[in-house]
Amino acid sequence: xxxxxxxxxxxxxxxxxxxxxxxxxxxxxxxxxxxxxxxxxxxxxxxxxxxxxxxxxxxxxxxxxxxxxxxxxxxxxxxxxxxxxxxxxxxxxxxxxxxxxxxxxxxxxxxxxxxxxxxxxxxxxxxxxxxxxxxxxxxxxxxxxxxxxxxxxxxxxxxxxxxxxxxxxxxxxxxxxxxx
Length: 180
Prior knowledge:
The chain is an alpha/beta fold. The chain has a single domain (2-179), classed as Nucleoside phosphorylase domain (Rossmann fold, 3-Layer(aba) Sandwich). 30% of the residues lie in helices and 28% in strands. It is built from four helices and eight strands, in the order E-E-H-E-E-E-H-E-E-H-E-H. It has helices at residues 28-42, 90-99, 127-136, 161-179, and strands at residues 2-6, 20-23, 46-55, 66-74, 85-86, 104-110, 122-124, 141-150. The longest helix has 19 residues, at 161-179. The mean pLDDT is 93.
């Protein structure tokens, strides 16, 4: 069984009926707690964190781009604390490269606040926490994101949430098909 983890249920639509789904809640703390509890209960063969993300203005990353995390960076910790960087499972990363050839493969920052990551071009709120819970349980994990906004865009009314969820659903399905 593969566990798909998203902050909210709508982010999990692409994996319905084919995988175990967990809406973990928004932010790194909720993601870590919910994912760890579910891993203990279900013991999946892989964990995939899916969701929307923001990209830095001027990064060359466009709204609605699919991004696969090559590294999860916990931006709320001082860099000297370890671990604050995790790599996804290499087999899952290769499966994503095959299933999503047009995706961007980049580090994704995890932070509890919008704009809280200055060292990465892509920012989300749960990835590191989900991957860390999986790492501690020795379960392969990967992060899949779709860009819904520029990090610097203050008005959420200008974010492309519905379109981003639609693109995420298709990317999730393609990745899941490659993993089954």
